[in-house]
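QA checklist item 7 of 12: single-chain prediction sanity check.
[x] sequence parsed
[x] length recorded as 528
[x] structure emitted
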Amino acid sequence: MTFRPEGQRVSVHDGATLLDAAAQAGIILNTICGGVGTCRKCEVVLLPERRTVLACEHRVQSDLTVEVPGRSRFFEQQILHHGIDRQITLSPGIHEHVPGLRDNKHIFGVAVDIGTTTIVAKLMDMATGECKATAASANPQIAYGDDVVSRIAYAERPKGLETLHRAVVGCLNDLIAQLEAASQVAARHIYEVTVAGNTTMTHILLKFPLSQLGQSPYRAYSTKAEDCRADKMGIAINPCGNIHVVESIAGFVGSDITAVAVAVGMDEIDAMTLVVDIGTNGEIVLGTKTQMYAASCAAGPALEGARIGHGSRAVDGAIEAVFVCADGRDIDVDVIGGGRARTICGSGLIDAIAVLLEAGLLDVTGRFIGKEALQGKAAPAILDRLIERGGQPAFVLAGSGNDANESVVLTQKDVRETQLAKAAIRAGIQLLQKKMHVADVDIQQVLLAGAFGNFIRRESALRIGLLPQVGVERVHFVGNAAGSGARMILLSSECRRLAADLAERIEYVEIAHEPDFQGVFAEALMFE
C-alpha cells in the first residue's frame, strides 16, 4: 500500500480495510461514525483510476496507491479548527514575546512533542497554519534509561540532569536542522518553539529539579507554562525567539495530555469521553466539559516491546498485526516492511493475546491451556504452534518453532508482562470511573491517542480488556493528538489560553493512593 501525497508505504494482510492500512501508515482519517460507513467522512481516492471509496468499507485485495484528500484527515483541519468543530483564528502568541514583528509573514514556528521514546517536530508557517516539514527522532535519553523512573534516577547522579538536558537540546537542534533542510526555511525565521511532553521530559528540558518526582507524593517542581529566550536555552532558532513549554497537570500527567485535551476539544465535549494515551507511562482523562479527571498508569515498557522475549518497537521486521486466516485453519501476521518477521511490537502483542484468547489457548487468568485439553477444540495447524521454549509454554507466531533463531514466539512470561501493562491501564480507567460514578455503558466515546494507540486494533484492545466494554464503534483513533495540540497552541493565542484553563480544571487522581487500587488492579489482571 502506498499513500499519497506522503509516499508512505505499508504492508497489510489481504482483507484489511483501507482504514486499517491508513492507521498503520500514521494517517488518521475522519471516522466520526466509528468506521461503520454512515458518516462518509473517510473518502479516499484509488489511483490511477481516481475512483472514490470509503476507507472504512474498502477491503484490500491487491497492491494499491491511495490518495488521501485533506477533507478526510482528522487533524488536517485541526490546525485551523479547535477540537472537532469550533473555528479559531490564527493569532500566534509570538508577538507578545518578540516586539517589533509586524505581521506573520516570513515568521515560522516549531511544534514539538517530546516523548519518552520519540521526539517529533513540525515546522509551521505562522501566516497560513501550513505544516512545511516534519522531523522525528528517537529520544537520545534512552541511553540513560528506557522510562521516566530510570531517567529521574539518572538525574540524581553528579551532572546527570545536565547530561539529560544536553541530550534533548542537541536532539531538538538536530531536528530543527532537518526541518531547515527539508523546507528551505532559515533558522533566523523561526521565532518560537512550543513544547509538549510528559512532566519528566519538560523538567529535563527546563533543568528543573527532578528528585521530588521520584518519591511520594510525586509532585512536580512546577506545572506552570514556561517561556524562555531561545539563545539562553541554546536552541538554534532566531536568538530573540521564544521557547514555550505548555502547562502540565500533575507530576505524572504532563503537558502532552494538556495538549491532547486542547486537540480533541475537551472544553466543548458534552458526551462522556475517555481519552487514553498508551505508552510506558499511560495517561488517561475521563469526563465532559463540566468535569474532568486525569490519572497516570505505570504500564511499563512491555507494550513498546521491552521485557518481551522477541519484543521490539515498531521497526522493520516487527510483527504489527496477528489475525486468524479467513478459513479459520491457521493464523497469519503482518510485518512492518513486508519482510521476514524478526520481532513483535506492541500492536502485534495485543493482537496475539486476543487471538490466543479467542482460540481458547489462554484461559481468563492468562495461563496457556495444555495441548491435550485442546484436541478437537482448536484447528490442528494452530495447535501445532504450541511448543515449549525455555521451560515454559510458548506459541509460535512466525517461523519454525524448531529453530529459535528463525522464529518469533510468545511465551508464558510475555503473556504475564502484557497482563501487568494492561491491568495498570485498565485499573486506572476503572478508578476514574468510580470517581465519577460512570459505568462502561455510560462512556459514549473512547479516544486513543499517541503513536501506539493509533496502531492497535480496536477489537483486540477490547477483547483483552484493555479498554472498557463499549461497542467498537465508540472507539476512535486520534493519532498524535499531543503534537496536534502543540501546533494549535503555537498558532493560536486562544488555544494557549485554553491550555492554561484546561490544565487548571482537570483534576488529578493519584490512583496508587486510592483505597480500592490493589483490588481493582488484581481484577484487571484477568482477561475478560
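[x] summary fact logged: The two ends are 34 Å apart (CA to CA).
[ ] second reviewer sign-off
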